[in-house]
C-alpha cells in the first residue's frame, strides 16, 4: 500500500507544477544556502586550526609523562638516559595517520645583545624535518630560516629584534640554566627574523638548531623533550593521539597530546563557531516550516472536493493523513535534491577559489591565531547531512497540521464545496 | 473603475478569508521578526565582543604619553594636568552621557614574591571606583574582594599567579620594582632608579580566563603604586570606556582638541589594540555573511508565501476578467491587496520583532542554555548576549522586507492580469 | 633557572636583621642586643672572601669556588674560580646596576632586576641574598622563645615576628644562638601559616680577621616544592653521572677565608675589572 501511496503522493504534487516548483525552489535554495554557510564555516575552522598549529605548535606532540605543562628541562623523553631519537621519530612517522614527525628540544633563558636583554623561549629543531611539520619558514620577513650550514644561527621574532636592538647578522648571547646546573652560555648569530602576527611568539621565541641547544643545555644527543607531529587529517587529532599513545607506551613511557589540549583557547573558539552555525540552521527550519505549512494548507483547501470524494469512496482518515504526509515528504525530498544540485557547484567554487573578504586588510589575528581574509570552504558532510535530516523532520512536523485538517473533513460537506 | 475603488475591493478581498489572510500575514511578518532578532543578536554580540575586549585592556579611547604605544617604557608618564583636563572634558554636560568610565592608571613591571616563590608581574596602579567602571577585572573576582578606596595596602592578583606563589586571601606578598630616577640622584640617565619594595596583602583573586592576565597582572591602589615608583601625582595612561563603541572617533577628536599642544597620544581602540581591531573586522565579515544568508532565506520565505497566495486564486481572477475587469484594473487590485497585506504583515512582524528584541535587550540570550558544554571561557565572551538595534537597522529591515514583498507581488499581478480565461475557469 | 624561595631581605651571613631601638621588656632588650650582634657578624667596611659552594639538587650536584669582594653597602664583585668551565664568570653590582661577564662567550651581559631573585648558579640562594645589603631596621619584634639544651648545647632561641608594616614575606623567623659564645646555630623561616619553608644552619666556628664567625652555612628548602631527593640514587656530579650519598636538596657555603676592613680600591668594581 505504501508504495502506491508514495506514487500517488508524488503524482499529486505534480498536478499543480507551478506551486510545487515554487515551494521546492524556496526550500531548495534555502538548503543550498545552509550548505554554503556550513562549507564556509568549516573552511574557516580548518584555516584557524592550521594557522594556530602550523606555525609553532604542530598538530600533536609526544612528551615524557611529566613534561607538560611546566616543561622542566630535566624531563626528557626516556628519562635521564634519553632514547634512540631517530628510531622513535621513525616509529611515529610509520603510523599511517602521521604525515611527518620531527624531534625538538625546549628551553628558556635570557637573550642579550649589548645593553639589552629579554627573557625568551628557546626551541631547538632539525630544520629539514621541522619544515615538514610547521610553516614558520613561510613567515620570514628578513634574512633566512635555519639551515644546516650555520649551526650557530638563530631565527627570532621581529618584535624581539626591536626590543634588544639587533638586525640580521647581529651577534647575540644566550644564557640558560643547563641540565647539570651550570649556566649555559654561548654566542649565536641572527640569521633571520620572522613575523607571525602573534605578539607572544614575535616577542619571545628563539629558534635554533637542535644540536646547538642540546650543547647549550649540556644534554647528550639522545635527550630531547618532544616530537612534533603533522597529521594527514587534523580534525582527527584527538583520536589519533590516544591511539598513538597506547602504541608508543609499549616501548617508552610517553604522553601524546593533540592540539586541542595544547591550545585550549583555539579549541574553544572552533567549537563555538561550529555551534553558532547551527543557529542559522534553526532559522532556516523555522522558515521552512512556515513555507511548507502554507503550501500544504492551501493545497488541501483547494482539493477539498477531491479529498471529500476520496473519503466518500472509502479512504480512511488515517490513509488521508498518510497521503498528505507522503506528499509533504516527497516535496521535502525533492527540495533537498534540488538544493543539493544547486549547492554543489557553489561548494566546489568555495573550496577551490574561496571567498575573499576584505583582501587588502591583510591577515587578522583571532583567538591566538592568524587568519587570512581569503576563506576557502571545506566540505562538512556531517553538517550537510544534519541539515538534511533536520529539514526532513521539520517537513514531517509541518505536515501534521494540514494532514489532520484533511483527515477531519467530512465527506458530505467536502463534496458540496465548489 | 477608479483606482481607489479597486484598492478598496482589494482590501475587502483580504478579509473574505480572514484566517488565510492572517496566516499569510503571520508568515510574512515572521520573516521580518526573524530578521530583526538575528540582526539584533548579531549586532549585540559584535558590540559586546568589542566592549569586553576593550575592557580587558585600554578601553575605547586611551590617552598616553607620546611614544608609549611603541616602546611601553615605564618612564613615559603623562604630563601633569592631563588627567584633570581629561576628567573635566569627559564629565562635562556635553560629553558625560557618552562616557561610562574614566580610569587613570600607573603601569610598570616588577617582581612579586611570596614565601614560596617569586614571579615577574605587570603592575597596574588604579583608583578602584574608576577602574570598576572601565575594566572587567573587578567583575571577575572569584575569591575575596576587589580593592576598595580605604584599604591602602591591598592587591588583587590572578588565579594563575596565586597558584604559582601559593598565596591565599590575606597572604603576604612583597612587590619589588625599579623606581624612577630621582632628579637629585648621582646616577647617569641610563641607570634608572633605586629598587623599591613594598608589602601588600592579597585582598582578592580574579579569573579572566586569559592566561596572560591571570598569570601576570596585578592591581593595587594608585597612591600606593605612585609611592612605590617615586612618581607622586603622575600616571601612565587614562583609559576611557564609552556607552557606544561608535563614539570612539568622536571622543578622541574632542580630546585632541582639548589637549592640543600637549605631547600625548590619544588613541581610539582600533589603534591601541590592533589585534582586537582585526578580530572585530573578522567578526564583522562573519556577520555580513550571516545577515546576508538570513535575509536571503527570509526573501525566499516571502517569495513562497506571496506566490502561493496569488497563484491559488487564478480561478477567482479568471472570474473577475470574465465579468469585465480589464487586465490593468485587475493588476491594480492585486497590487493593492498585496500592499495591504504587506502592511499588515510588517506591522505584525514589527510588533513581534521589537518585543523579542526588547526581551533580548534587557534579559539577554543566555548562550549557556544552547551550548551546555564548551562555551569558550578564554575568548573575550560573556555567556549572555544582549540584543542591540539601531533605528537605522530597524528602518532598513522594514524597508527591505517591504521592497521584497512588493517586488515579488508584481510578477503574479502581471501574470494574473493576463490570465487565459478558459484555463482559469477550469474547476478541476 | 628554577625560582627559589627567594626572600626580600635575607642575606647569607652578611646580615640577617638590622634592628633598631624599639625596646620592650628588659629581656626583650637583651634579646634584641644579642640578635643585633649576631646580625653584624659579617658586616664591615669592606671584605674579601674565598668561598666554596656545594649545591645538591634532585638531578645534579656541583661544587663551585668563588671569590667575593665588597666595599661599603653597594659595591660587590663575585668571581668564579672553579670548576674549569665556569672559571672567570663574574658578577658585578654597583649601585642599582648588575652586570655579568661570561668568559666562554667573552661578553658582558646586563642583568635585569628580576634576575636578582632567581637562584644564584642554581643554588638555593638568590643573587639578592648574596649581594643585597640589608637596609631594614625595626622590622621584627623579638622575643625569647626557648632557653636550654638542644643537641647537647646550651642555646637561646629567639622568635622574630615581622612588624605589620615590614616588607618581608615571612610569617616568622626563629634564630637559635649558643649561649656560650653568642654564635648562631640555626635560622628557620616560616610562612604565615606557620609552615617551615627553609632552614639555614651554621657550624665550623673560627676566628677570622679578629672575629669569631661560623664558616659553614647550609640552606635547605623544606616546603613541598623543595626538599626533593634523587629518585634513583644517581646524579650528575660536576657533569658526570655518579652515585650520590647526598639525598636531600641543599646548598652549602663554606668560607675558606675572609678578611675584613682591608682597603680595596674602587677600581676593583669597574666593568673593566669584570673581564679579568
What is the H/E string of chain B? HHEHHEEHEEHEEHEHEHEHHHHEEHH
Proportion of helical residues of chain B? 40-55%
Strand order of the largest sheet of chain A: 2-3-8-5-7-6
Task: State the shape of chain A.
Answer: elongated
> Largest interface: which pair?
A-B, 51 and 47 residues
- Order of strands across the main sheet of chain B: 2-3-8-5-7-6
Helices of chain B, by number, come to 15
Structural class category of chain A: alpha+beta
SSE succession of chain A:
HHEHEEHEEHEEHEHEHEHHHHEEEEHH
- The N- and C-terminal alpha carbons of chain A lie at a distance of 30 Å
- The share of residues in extended strands of chain A comes to 15-25%
Average residue-wise pLDDT of chain A: 83
Write up what this structure looks like.
The complex is a heterotrimer of chains A (418), B (428) and C (276). Chain A has 418 residues and is α+β, with helices and mostly antiparallel strands. Helix content of chain A is 54%, strand content 20%. Chain A has two domains: 2-52 and 267-416, no CATH class; 65-253, no CATH class. Chain A has helices spanning 2-15, 17-57, 85-94, 127-133, 158-164, 199-204, 210-216, 237-248, 259-262, 264-302, 304-312, 317-352, 381-407, 411-416, and strands spanning 60-63, 98-113, 116-125, 140-143, 153-157, 171-177, 183-194, 205-209, 226-231, 255-258, 355-356, 364-366, 369-371, 374-375. Chain A has a six-stranded mixed beta barrel with strand order 2-3-8-5-7-6, surrounded by four helices. In chain A, helix 2 (17-57) packs across helix 12 and helix 2 (17-57) packs antiparallel against helix 13. The two termini of chain A are 30 Å apart. With 428 residues, chain B is α+β, with helices and mostly antiparallel strands. Chain B folds into two domains: 3-52 and 278-425, no CATH class; 58-271, no CATH class. Chain B has helices at 3-16, 18-55, 68-71, 82-90, 128-134, 159-165, 211-216, 222-229, 248-258, 269-272, 274-311, 314-322, 327-362, 391-417, 421-425; strands at residues 61-65, 99-113, 118-126, 141-144, 154-158, 172-178, 195-206, 217-221, 237-242, 264-268, 365-366, 384-385. In chain B, a hairpin with a 4-residue loop joins strand 2 (99-113) and strand 3. The relative contact order of chain B is 0.19. Chain C is mainly beta and 276 residues long. Chain C has three helices and 15 strands. At the A-B interface, helix 2, helix 10 and strand 12 of A face helix 2 and helix 11 of B.
